Amino acid sequence: MAAKVGYRMEPGTMVWRDAVQSLWRRRLLIGACTLLGVAGAFAFALPQTARWTATSEILVGPAVPPALLDLPAGLDKTGPLGMDLPAETQARVVASPSTMRVVAARLGLSVADDEVQKMSAATRVKAVTDNSYIITTDGSSAEEAVRRANTIAGVYLEQRRAAAQSVLATLAAQNEQRATTTASQAAGLQRSIDNALSRSQDGLASSLRDKQVDLRTSSVDFKDKAKALREAADSAGSTSKLVTPASPEAVTVSPNITRDVSVGAVLGFVLGIALALGSTHLSPFVATRDEAARSAGAPVLTASTTGRRWWHRTARKLDLSELTALGTEVVSAIARRGYTEDGEGAVLVVSASPSPNADGVALAMACATAREGRRTVLVFADVRGPRPDVELGRDAPANPDGLVNLVGEPAHSRSDKARKLLVPGPAPDLQLLMPGSGDEQALTVAPALVPGIVTELRGSAEALVVHGPAADRNHGVAPLAAAVDGCVLVVQCGHDRQSRVSRLCASLEFAGAPVLGVVLIGAHRDDETLGIPVDANGHLLESVRQ
User: Fold this and answer.
1) What InterPro entries does its record include (predicted)?
2) Are strands 300-304 and 515-521 parallel, antiparallel or unpaired?
């Protein structure tokens, strides 16, 4: 066996190609979503008042070494004296109205409550670490924003320094007071020592001397600590500083129309792609030739790319020239595939849902067969649907009787009556059996007469075409399928559900009338699929191969 030569696509190539094709078919949706995103960005950006945003960063350290305050070494993160205060609390203090009131006074702005609240709302402080804070504020100009950001940082650092100096001064005064008290107590013990010595109480005198030494030592310690606190107060807050001052070069302005429009366009484009992919993979309707072929388990014989309306899923009625072209292609495809012997046999034309073009396709197929010189009979078995728009022959009556009128006819004479009801069609060698008219009971029984009538007409006609009702009608097409050799399924792209098409094809197959092919109405112009039923591995289905 000779080896196959040709290009073989990787398994993922088909998936990506189908995805790209589906996006291209829905390019109008993607473009509309992109324009919607751009319009939304404009609507968001244009009404806003221009504002400038500046950012500064401060580094906060302990006011004094923790050892000087007899504090553990782990409690030196935040707070004016290294006290363990949460960083988020400090961030709230920076943006608080009390701090903003001082800032407003420093900048010469109004200190009214409303203005202070607005300034506080326009200031954001983020604790990067326990000792680093980023201050972001808005202003009416770049210079104003820079001044505000740097002033807020400076005011907060000054408040920390002033609070530390105040606390250190208080602690120093307390230690000086303790030094004075202990010194006076030590001086008072000297008289008790002298009295003890005069009474020869050496032991008591020695004990009092030891206590006097301890008091004098404590007094000296309190004095040294007070001196250290005074010196620390002079350098309080030296470890806290403005490490990154705000500058005009780093100021950002909002709204930035270019940025906002770009973001809106990107978001709209992504939304459009998501909607396009979602509508493609989640939609239950037939959208492409391949989907129609997979649902029906039969190839797409021909397809019409006109008549599709974006505001309505149902396609409009096609022109006579388009229907003629579709019918001719279907008859040629059936003959090429050898579905019927020498192009002869009975074919049922049925649609998955009511279609304004199913009867036209059946008529075009019958006309194409008759033009080839074969005696053809077209039976309109959709007795509940709209009356077919057919141009009858010269000798045909205006409203001829038809299939429904055969219900009251005895069985032995029904076939002869059916032949008498045949009227000439728009093409030579074509005769038509119209639906006729009758009561509800006659409309219900009429489709069941088709198998017998088709069997009787086979002897006088070389080809029969039966137009059946849509599959979603109350009365199915199973009785009609039993009378024909195969079916041609008319599918409306974007309207018929894939599950409905599959169920219809399964019921026709069970009734003995396999689907010979599909006529797809309303296919997209950019649909490049072939309409050949394949399995999950990309192999042709066995039924089609046979």
Assistant:
1) Bact_polysacc_biosynth/exp, LPS_length_determ_N, P-loop_NTPase
2) parallel
